[in-house]
């Protein structure tokens, strides 16, 4: 049996906080305990929000925690061509289509729809109304030729039909205690964006491609991504990629009961370190031995 492979995949758009420390240390400890490997991946496809100094801080903070990872580290922005190829393959297979509406137009379509309340995805965002899926290939080509800006969306109806019923193996649990063999519900996400003009990929697409390419056998991450796994299973199936085992862990909450987030200035590991905390203190704070 080859050793299990774990990964921690932060986005360099802020300083790591206790929630990241929990996820990173849990992955690292599980890898150690099972004689497995631990990889680090920098998920920096969002060029507007990713910063090299945040990436440097990730390495510094993880090393301070006592985490050791294999090198070279995979950085998603180095592989955009690969993701682009995969999206083109999906489009050629009739599984993705260009959608031309701006965010404001989509919001207006939803507001004016007789269907209220408009359905939302598990993250709470309104589903794409799907008007562009109905365009003929000729209409699409004409718009693309005319230089209209577009995103590529998954045709979830065709994709779900082609993939059939999907499950994943959950070793942790979902927000309502889902565990074991969990039925994927990709239809709950509608026609997700797979690629944008400025970024020829998306979180969902690059994460499944990289997990497969890096031979990840165990995806251990926060429960906020539990239902995103539905889309990941669907993309794995469509792209012929293997499915890892998943373990979603509970999220650390701030004093106000909300999940910690970089954007809301959760106390960073470096601030705690500056205040004199030790890596052992951090483990105690997050309840890891
Ligand atoms: N890059 C994602 C984040 O920082 C994590 C992705 C994953 O673990 O699948 O939230």
**β-strand number:** 10
Overall 3D form:
globular
- Percent helix among the residues? 25-40%
Q: End-to-end distance, in Å?
A: 28 Å
Structural class: alpha/beta
**Describe the biggest sheet?**
3 strands, parallel
Q: Compute the CA-based radius of gyration.
A: 20 Å
Overall pLDDT? 95
Helix count, DSSP H or I runs of 4 or more residues: 10
H-E order: EHEHEHEHHEHEEEHEHEHH
Which strands sit side by side, in order, in the main sheet?
A: 1-2-3
Model regions low in confidence, pLDDT < 50 over at least 5 residues: none
Hey, roughly how much beta strand do the residues contain? Answer: 5-15%
**What molecules are bound to this protein?**
glutamic acid
SSE blueprint:
Elements: E1 5-8, H1 18-33, E2 37-42, H2 52-65, E3 74-75, H3 80-92, E4 96-99, H4 103-111, H5 137-145, E5 151-154, H6 156-163, E6 167-170, E7 180-183, E8 193-195, H7 203-213, E9 218-222, H8 228-239, E10 245-249, H9 269-274, H10 279-285
Helix pairs in contact: 7-8
The protein binds glutamic acid.
Give the structure's gist in a few sentences.
The chain has 289 residues and is an alpha/beta fold.
Features:
single chain, 289 residues, alpha/beta, three-stranded parallel beta sheet, three-stranded antiparallel beta sheet, globular, binds glutamic acid
């Amino acid at each position: 049996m080859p050793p299990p492979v774990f990964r921690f995949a932060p986005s360099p758009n802020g300083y790591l906080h206790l929630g990241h420390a929990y996820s990173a240390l849990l992955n690292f400890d599980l890898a150690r305990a099972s004689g497995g490997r631990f990889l680090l991946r920098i998920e920096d496809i969002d060029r507007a929000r990713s910063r090299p100094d945040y990436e440097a801080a990730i390495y510094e903070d993880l090393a301070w925690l006592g985490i050791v990872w294999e090198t070279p580290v995979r950085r998603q922005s180095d592989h955009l061509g690969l993701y682009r190829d995969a999206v083109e393959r999906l489009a050629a297979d009739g599984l993705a289509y260009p959608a031309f509406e701006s965010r404001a137009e989509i919001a207006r379509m939803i507001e004016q729809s007789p269907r209220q309340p408009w359905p939302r995805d598990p993250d709470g965002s309104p589903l794409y109304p799907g008007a562009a899926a109905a365009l003929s290939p000729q209409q699409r080509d004409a718009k693309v030729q005319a230089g209209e800006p577009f995103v590529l969306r998954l045709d979830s109806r065709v994709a779900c039909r082609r993939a059939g019923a999907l499950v994943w193996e959950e070793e942790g649990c979902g927000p309502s205690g889902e565990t074991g063999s969990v039925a994927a519900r990709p239809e709950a996400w509608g026609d997700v964006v797979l690629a944008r003009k400025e970024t020829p990929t998306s979180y969902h697409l690059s994460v499944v491609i990289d997990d497969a390419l890096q031979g990840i056998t165990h995806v251990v991450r926060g429960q906020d991504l539990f239902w995103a796994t539905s889309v990941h299973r669907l993309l794995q199936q469509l792209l012929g990629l293997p499915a890892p085992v998943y373990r979603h862990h509970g999220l650390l909450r701030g004093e106000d009961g909300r999940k910690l987030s970089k954007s809301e200035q959760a106390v960073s590991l470096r601030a705690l370190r500056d205040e004199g905390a030790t890596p052992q203190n951090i483990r105690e704070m997050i309840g890891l031995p």
